[in-house]
Amino acid sequence: MAEQMDNFKWVISIIIEILVLTIKCLFYMAESVYRIIIPMPEKSISEDIVLITGTGHGIGKALALQLSQLCAKVVCVDINEKSNIETVNEINSKFKNKAYAYTCDISSLENVKQLGEKVKNEVGTVTILINNAGIMPCKPFNEQDEATIRKLFDINVFAHFWVLDTFLPGMISLNRGHVVALSSMAGVIGVSNLVPYCASKFAVRGICEALLDECRENGFTNIKGTCVYPYIVDTGLCKKPLIRFPSLLPIVTPESAAKEIISAMRRDCLEISIPSPLLRINNIFRCVPYKMALDFKSFLGGGVDAHDD
């Protein structure tokens, strides 16, 4: 009798959980529709210290300039000392004491740890981290060599671990922060001539998603994250883009990409694509037959042609 009563209580508790879950799901769906119509307001970042990797050019430089305009303190990190200092000088000529230059090879954990000590002592605790640095060799898989693949993963993947390992504890101590990870649409869809690059960007997507889940489960709900999937940005990495309909899938400037990234981060978006419809289109075509999705992809004609580094 007691066992039957326990089983009955268990069944009732499961039914209650299912009802609560159903109500939550309906609420979340309604909230999602509401936020499409009325987006989240953009949070202020004037009190934040933002560290950006790869600020010597491209998206990283554009991010540093635009974030400085929003009154954030910006820590610029790049392996190229000359171009990085040029970025910081350009910022500080307009916004005094807003930007700081640090030269670092972020593929080395030891170098990143040394960077972390300097930034903490000289600037303060980083509260927004933007992992932007990356490389993109464009060659068929059978022409990719071991050294290139290892270098690609050192910069595009392992550097994320080293930078997070160094700067995330500061955010955890404050229970406040935001991590922005630059993946790619090549981290959502496989693209020929980019096999190792796609693998690295799929990895970045996994790092971001799993890290946020771990923070949530450990109670650090004020640490947010945004994973970014740009299509083709005019940064010089993609020298031979293949675009059949340029008006439909345009090459965007680093400045416009940076603007969308900052807006998404300030609205606490979990993920965005640039252009924005691409992620939704991909999600739809993940639900249809594979051959149908391939034919649609071939019709659009997007991708990159092989080229020398």
Task: Provide a short characterization of the protein structure.
This protein has one domain (45-239, 250-284): NAD(P)-binding Rossmann-like Domain (Rossmann fold).
Set down the secondary structure blueprint.
Elements: H1 2-37, E1 49-53, H2 58-69, E2 73-78, H3 81-92, E3 99-103, H4 109-122, E4 128-131, H5 146-174, E5 177-182, H6 195-217, E6 223-230, E7 241-242, H7 254-266, E8 271-274, H8 277-285, H9 290-300, E9 303-304
Parallel strand pairs: 1-2, 1-4, 2-3, 4-5, 5-6, 6-8
Antiparallel strand pairs: 7-9
List keywords for this structure.
Rossmann fold, two-stranded antiparallel sheet, seven-stranded parallel β-sheet, 309 residues
The parts where pLDDT drops under 50 for at least 5 residues are none
Strand order of the largest sheet: 3-2-1-4-5-6-8
CATH class: Alpha Beta
Largest sheet, strands/sense/barrel: 7 strands, parallel
Morphology = globular
Cα separation of the termini: 75 Å
Total of DSSP H or I helical runs spanning 4+ residues:
9
Order of helices and strands: HEHEHEHEHEHEEHEHHE
